[in-house]
Amino acid sequence: MIKAIEYFIEILRGSVITARHFFVNMFFHILKVMGIKTKRKGAVTIQYPEEKKELASRHRSLHRLMKRENGKPRCVACMLCVTACPSECIYVEAAEDPDLEIQKYPAKFIIDLSRCCFCGFCVEACPEDAIRMDTDQIELAQYSREDLLYDLDKLIG
Amino acid sequence: MIEILIVFIKIIFALIWLLTLTLYLTWVERKESAVIQDRIGANRASILGIRIIGLFQPFADAIKMIFKEDFTPSFSKKFLHDLAPFLSFFFVAITISAIPFGDFISIGGKTINLLILDINVGLLFVLAMLSLGIYGILIAGWSSNNKFTLIGGLRGAAQLISYEVALGLSLIGLIMVYPSLNLSQIVHFQGELLFGVVPKWGIFLQPLGFMIFFFAALAETKRVPFDLPEGESEIIGFFTEYGGLKWGLFMMTDFMEVIIVSCLLTTLFFGGWQVPWLATDGFHFPWGGEWLLSHWVVVLFQVAAFNIKVFFFSWLQVLIRWTYPRFRYDQLMDMGWKLLIPLSLVNIVGTGILMSI
Ligand code: SF4
Ligand code: SF4
């Protein structure tokens, strides 16, 4: 009998908790409608397309290829990123560079973003610091797979 | 002639009231659950870019449901399969005709009662219609010709029948206190005062009866924590083979039942349209004060009181639905047969003893 009453009290406490959430949140919603700014919000929701969360500084987003002073890509087509990539989604075609210091440059550099898992290994692997993932672009959805093949023109920047 | 016209207008008003409330209860359910869970809830439905906190959402839902394919599985019993959702919708919707919205209005010397059907057995009528709603579920489960829907339908019928008994028994104490089955008379009785101060509402005279009725009525609405017939999230329920508007009718029936249960709770236990100390000519406070009001203001007060009470109970039921997990089936049956029915019998006997003293 005592047990049953204890259960009953616990059941009531459950609805007290939900009711408290309701009234507290409603209070802050109403304050917001009346134009009073409060630190606490009525909901934790971020209204995504209009409102965006700030990205952490260590985030990984769309790749970008770095440039030398003369505007050419810093990449020396060493294929280290190609080797490191677990998704095998980087394709590099090397060509000879007249500058003996550089020796090679990428004639083609394609990242297939439809397969990329944004692990950042390519960035880690690159000896020349030629590839980075800090463009802040994370909305990369496209209607066709071909649009997700990013080549040198799109990546350099 | 004019009588028929008046009844017709009353029916239209009551139906509009019920259907709008049902539509917006879906919105309230979404918003309230969101606020409880620290979210915002559906707010994207817009007309020409205007979206007032998602108030157009019910219409978007309705349009979506209307334009979905209306399919009937080839193995089902076609006629009954089509009939079932209408049965369950009809028997719930018709109960609104016995609920008093207010006392009366007088236009040009004519008094019009603010309820459609002023019959002497109003309470029995409502209970009977609510229990007939089981047929919709049973037929839906059986005519789909699918083992799981059949089990869902039987489960629903077993649940509703066991709670029907408690529902009926819990009201007998009430009928003993207010010696009438006529809902408008029950409301009139609740306008009297207890010890000259407290209004004579059902909740004060029949607290145990109220609790039993509330539990049983929650079970009648077939929503969480008593949603074993449907079990939207994991169990296969009686409306598995339905889609589109017919499924929508079942869903609307659920929400409508919530409103009808709120109406019944208000009418039977919370004084219906009665405002404490409000008589037909204004307020008469027990401490001697008076505040006389014109007829129309009084009517407005009464209808508003009824609506506020109904809104409150709808809100409470949504809160309960978003708080508790589902009962196991044997717990559900245990609670119905072993707890609520004995308690309601105790209530009847206790009421009898108290009244004879
Ligand atoms: S982020 Fe990872 S998966 Fe994507 S290209 Fe770089 S190494 Fe490959
Ligand atoms: S590791 Fe760096 S330098 Fe080597 S191919 Fe990749 S991007 Fe170019």
Supply the key terms.
heterodimer, A: 157 residues, alpha+beta, Alpha-Beta Plaits, three-stranded antiparallel β-sheet, two-stranded antiparallel ribbon, 29% helix, B: 357 residues, mainly alpha, two-stranded antiparallel sheet, 11 helices, 7 strands, globular, binds iron/sulfur cluster
What does this structure look like?
The complex is a heterodimer of chains A (157) and B (357). The relative contact order of chain A is 0.16. Chain A folds into 2 domains: 45 residues, no CATH class; 93 residues, Alpha-Beta Plaits, CATH 3.30.70.3270. In chain A, a hairpin with a 7-residue loop joins strand 2 and strand 3. Chain A is built from 4 helices and 5 strands, in the order αβαββαββα. Chain A has 157 residues and is of the alpha+beta class. Chain A has a 3-stranded antiparallel beta sheet. Chain A has a two-stranded antiparallel sheet with strand order 1-4. By secondary structure, chain B is mainly alpha-helical. Chain B has 11 helices and 7 strands. In chain B, a hairpin with a 2-residue loop joins strand 5 and strand 6. In chain B, helix 3 packs antiparallel against helix 4, helix 3 runs parallel beside helix 9 and helix 8 packs antiparallel against helix 11. The chains are: A alpha+beta (157), B mainly alpha (357). At the A-B interface, helix 1 of A face helix 1 of B.
